[in-house]
Every structure is written in structure tokens, then in C-alpha cells.
Amino acid sequence: MESLFEKHDILLRNTRTNFVRSIMDDIDWDAPLIALRGPRGVGKTTLMLQYIKLNYQSYDRKVLYCSLDTMYFASHSLLSLASDFYKQGGKHLFLDEVHKYENWSREIKEIYDLYPEMRIVLSASSLLNLLMGDADLSRRCVSYEMQGLSFREFLEFYKGIRIERKPLETILANPQDICAGVNEKCRPIEFFREYLKFGYYPFYGKNKATYHQLIEQIVNFTIDVELTQICKVEVSNTRKIKALLYVLSSTLPFDVDISKLSVYTGINRNTIIAYMRNLADAHIIQQLYYDAKSVGKLQKPDKIYLDNANLIYALATSQVNVGTIREAFAVNQLSVAHTVEYNKKGDFRIDGKWTIEVGGDDKDFAQIADIPNSYIFADNLETPIGKKLPLWLLGMMY
């Protein structure tokens, strides 16, 4: 186990804490079992290491971070690690990439039952929830979903501009003061353009030239490895899933026609719907429905977007449609804390209470004039004009 502590120490020394994601404050770190889920590349490992560095002294052996895809676990079990750690006074165990360890859920349950005073933090793919039922961990575990950077976090992480989070209710009720505060610190439109193309994943600063290539690699890994291992998709079908994704990314926002997709990909209707659900669970696409409450397992979505604007730029094979970018951004930011439904009259219905139309700065209220609690979120605006608000404001929510 000492080799794991050596790696733990090296990782902590190389972990910076000058910028910490806002989700850090949302997590109940005292819960006995926490699952931190999210797509690859959004910073789950960094968040775990930052928590340790901010809350424990250097070389404190009561806490241990380790990744379950290391060679150590080729000859050691997770259960034996927890036993040795506990006997040496261990209190807080951080386990990364748990889905790469066979039968992890059963061993975690046994650790949870044997050492109730030990706190355990798990980190894994967004698809982790599909595995929770193996050992009935869902009742024991507090789960958190980690997204990519919001526009607000992008401003702080890359530009050093700190702005407080604002919930949607505050944005709708008091946009003037929020915009005034942001405009005192920066010209948001300039940075917003950059964010839409490069700002969602926190590895833009490492190598800007290969940023979109890295995103494409994440997508390929998710389909080739995670969907096959976690969702039990047959390896022979991964190329069909990529063909499906190619169609979706080429025509987004996509009004779903399952028959056409079936002909193009050679996949039957029910399998296409299942694959799209897998892609949505993996945060590669967003599926919208007219009525989110009554969605059936085999019901096709009414509208599909790629999960975030950066993904569109990374996967696009032709010129990107600016309207698609705007709508994908809005859906991505709103869906973190709200239920987003597709709406024929106005683009989106939020929590069944608000109607939102997304467009350019020349967008008018013709489509939603008679709808109560309706708003336009328009691109290329620095300040609101009545109920016509800057689109970038939606990036202030987390």
C-alpha cells in the first residue's frame, strides 16, 4: 500500500488550488458514500485531489487517493486495500475510475458495511448509475453529476474574472444588475465567443491546437470502451453508433425521424432508441421531449442536440450553424439544474413554468408574445432590453 501513498503524495504536490470548481461547495463531503459522476475530461480527478489538499495536511495517512486502473489492483483487491487502510487508521478513501475494476460495486458495499466510520468517495463515468443496482448501492450512495465548465467558471479559470453564481430565478428577475456587474469586469461577448468554441472542458489551456482533437478522442473512448463495458453494447456495433452520431452532428438540432436513421445506420428502431439513450447518459447528446414526465423507455426524443457547443465544433464536418450553437449552449446550461422540454411555440419550456426563445440580437417576440412568463435569450447583447436578455447570462447559473 505504500506505493499507493507515494503516488498519492506526488499527485497532491502537482495539484493546484488557485481555481476550484463551484461544485466543491455543493457536495456533502461528510456523507459515508459519495459518487462523483461525469464525462471524461471535466475534472473529477482534480476535484478529488483539490479537496484532499485543502482539507488534509501533507503526508496525512488518514486519507488516500488511488485510481482503480493502476497496476496495483492487478494483484490486490479493493477489499484488501480498504482493510489495510482501516487498520492503519485510515478514515477517508478516494477511489477514482471505479468502473474499471471488476465487481467494484460488491466490494464497495462490503467495505461500506464493514467499516461504517470510513468515508468513501467514488469517481467514474456518467454511466455509473447503470451499475449502481449490482449491489444495491443506490440506497447507500449520494450521487453528484459533474459538468464541464460554465461560462462563469470559464471566465474565472482562464481569464481570472470572478463572478458569483446566479440561479435562473434571479437572472429572470434582475438581469440588469447582473449584466452591469459583469460588464464592469469584462466585455462578455468577446469571451463568450471563445467559450462556445473552446471553453467547456478544462484542458483548453494545455494545448489549444489539439483541443478539438482531444474532445474527439473522448467521444471515441466513450463509445469504444465505456459503452461496450458498461452498457454491454456489442463491439461490432460501435461503428454503427459512430455513424448514428455522425448523422446527428451533421444535421443538429435534429428533428428525430427514427425510420430514416434506421435506414442509414442499419440499426432497428428499438436499438437506435437504446443507443441514443446511452449517448445521452454519457453526455454526448441531449434528448428533449415535449413532456419529460411521461417519457417511456422506448419513446423516441422529439429533439436532439450534441451535449455542448464545443462538441459541435469538434465533430462538425461542415460549417457550424450559429443557431444550433446557441440552442445547444442554452440546453446544456439549463439542464444542469432544471427540466428542459422541447416546445413548438417558443424553443424550450423550463420546469413547466417559463418559456424561452433563443436567437440572435434581432430576435423578436412574435412567436411567444401571447405566452406568459416568456423570455428571449439573444446572442450579441451586453445588456437586457426588457424581457430580451443576453444569452451568455445562462452561463452564470453554476
Labels describing this entry:
398 residues, alpha/beta, Rossmann fold, 2 domains, 5-stranded parallel beta sheet, 5-stranded mixed beta sheet, 14 helices
Question: Mind explaining what this structure looks like?
Answer:
The protein has 398 residues and is α/β, with parallel strands linked by helices. It folds into 2 domains: 144 residues, P-loop containing nucleotide triphosphate hydrolases (Rossmann fold, 3-Layer(aba) Sandwich); 244 residues, no CATH class. It is built from 14 helices and 12 strands. The strands form 3 sheets. It has a 5-stranded parallel β-sheet with strand order 2-3-4-1-5. The protein has a 5-stranded mixed β-sheet with strand order 8-9-10-11-12, with helices on one face. β9 and β10 form a beta hairpin. α9 packs across α13. The longest helix is centred in the middle third of the chain and has 19 residues. The chain is globular. The two termini are 38 Å apart.
